[in-house]
Each structure stands twice: as C-alpha cells, then as structure tokens.
Design goal:
Elements: E1 5-6, E2 12-14, E3 26-28, H1 29-43, E4 59-64, E5 71-76, E6 81-82, H2 97-103, H3 122-125
Antiparallel strand pairs: 1-6, 2-3, 4-5
Length: about 130
C-alpha cells in the first residue's frame, strides 16, 4: 500500500542512485525544490514571478478529478513525498544512571555546588570594636 507523506522543506534526503539536479547525495527538500525551480526558469523564456507559485503557495488552476463531478477550481503546487519501506523499529528503552545507582545500592553524591554550611553571622565579620583600646 502506498502511504506517501509530504516532506517538509527542512527535512533531509540521501539519494545515492538516480540523483537529478543535486551534486551531493544528501540535501534538504527545499534545496531540491529551489534547484528544480531554477532549472525550469532557466529553460523557460517567459518565466515570471507568478510561476513561482508552483513551488510555494500554489498556482491557480482547475482540475478534472476522478472523485468529483466536473472541473474543480483550486491551486496546485509541486512537493516531494516520502513512503517508508516499513514501520520504523523501536529503540530499546535506556536506563538512566540514577536507576542503576539505586539498584546497586551506590550512594548518590550530594550536589557539589550546594553548601550545607550556614552563613556567618554579620556580627562575627564586622565585630563591634571594643572600647578597651
């Protein structure tokens, strides 16, 4: 079953074989769409800013679709889609070192930045001078 999902422009693809437009095998989806728009605009003499709608917010059009009766007004745009081969394997649950310390009865160290000492009394620091001088 084809379960293609649209890719976000910031998602990254690695295409080892069958690459087009991109020099590197790893690229962002948005970079590919920009390269495609540039390649088309270089070949089309009458390319205008309105044609950029193919790659952004969409281009006004009418579509004759199988599940609708007659023409339907709307927008069209080019996107890349991805269909995973299968479900993504689950990573094993990791245990934290805190849990391991409890299981092994290892005493937890106190916070080295917290002092248990009390603050000295200001009278100890700024002694009232003796009148016996």
């Amino acid at each position: 079953m084809n379960e293609f999902q649209p890719l976000n422009d910031d998602e990254v693809l690695y295409v080892s074989l069958g690459r087009v437009l991109m020099a590197n095998p790893t690229f962002k989806v948005g970079e590919f769409l920009d390269a495609l728009a540039q390649a088309i605009s270089d070949r089309e003499e009458d390319w205008t800013d309105e044609n950029e709608g193919w790659f952004s917010d969409g281009l006004e059009c009418e579509a004759l679709r199988f599940n609708a009766q007659g023409w339907q007004r709307g927008k069209v745009r080019l996107r890349l889609e991805f269909c995973p081969d299968g479900p993504r394997p689950q990573l094993p649950e990791r245990r934290t070192s805190h849990r391991r310390a409890e299981k092994l009865d290892i005493p937890r160290l106190e916070d080295p930045y917290r002092s248990e000492r009390t603050r000295p009394d200001l009278d100890d620091i700024y002694r009232i001078p003796d009148n016996d001088y």
